[in-house]
Amino acid sequence: MRFIVVDGLDGVGKDTHARLIKKRYEEKGEKVILRSHPESDNFFGKKAKKALYGTGNINKLRASIYYMLDVLRSIRLYYRKKNCDTLIMVRYLVGTAYLPKRLAKIGYNFFYNFVPTSRYMIYLDASVEVLLKRVQKRDEEEMFETLSELVKVRKKALLLVHDWNIIDTSGSVNETASRIEKLLDTLDNNVQ
């Protein structure tokens, strides 16, 4: 099974590009499962989503814990599932960057060594200004979608993902999709 992780901060285009990746492999005749956390099809995902629209440190902690439980649930149900050629997980490990600074690295390292990883770990990145502009176009704002939160979380996230495939999404969707296609071509060719 090809295991692809698409992660990054709010507004970076994770879901958009995960859907394009899904389409790429489906067009090759593969069976693809896409999980984008938090998912609304289970208790943990619903609780994480609800906490994201709350305020205060308790909701930050709740959002992080329920998010991690939602990811673990997806791993249990879908990783190495029969009749699946490619599993794409959106919002996987970088959610730990939303934890307080002293816990972020500990949480990331713990989960990195505990959950499945692969060479197909893609971190989508853009400047804080680009991210803020994108999230402000939405109808709702999550607690982490402010300038100060994006600055803090992006700094922590970039330290955590130093060994991932990092793709700049500051340009158009088509430009980013082209970069991702080239990366996937390279990774796919190196596996065969």
Description:
There is one protein chain. This protein is of the alpha/beta class and 192 residues long. The protein has one domain (2-37, 87-191): 3-Layer(aba) Sandwich (Rossmann fold). The chain is built from seven helices and five strands; from the N terminus they run βαβααβαβααβα. The protein has helices at residues 14-26, 43-52, 56-78, 101-114, 128-135, 147-160, 173-191, and strands at 2-8, 32-36, 86-90, 121-125, 165-168. Strands 2-3-1-4-5 form a five-stranded parallel β-sheet, sandwiched between helices. α2 runs antiparallel to α3 (56-78) and α5 (128-135) packs across α6 (147-160). The radius of gyration is 16 Å and the shape is globular. It starts with a strand and ends with a helix. The mean pLDDT is 90.
Short characterization:
With 192 residues, this protein is an alpha/beta fold. It has helices at residues 14-26, 43-52, 56-78, 101-114, 128-135, 147-160, 173-191, and strands at 2-8, 32-36, 86-90, 121-125, 165-168.
Between the first and last Cα atoms, what is the distance in angstroms?
13 Å
The pLDDT mean sits at: 90
SS-based class: alpha/beta
Number of helical stretches of at least 4 residues: 7
The CATH class assignment is Alpha Beta
pLDDT < 50 runs, ≥5 residues:
none
**Order of adjacent strands in the largest pleated sheet:** 2-3-1-4-5
Could you tell me the CATH topology label. Rossmann fold
Q: In total, how many domains does the architecture comprise?
A: 1
Q: What is the H-and-E element order?
A: EHEHHEHEHHEH
Radius of gyration: 16 Å
In helices, the fraction of residues equals 40-55%
Beta-strand content estimate: 5-15%
**The CATH homology group name:** P-loop containing nucleotide triphosphate hydrolases
Can you count the beta strands? Answer: 5
CATH architecture group name: 3-Layer(aba) Sandwich
Q: Shape, please?
A: globular
Most strands sheet = 5 strands, parallel
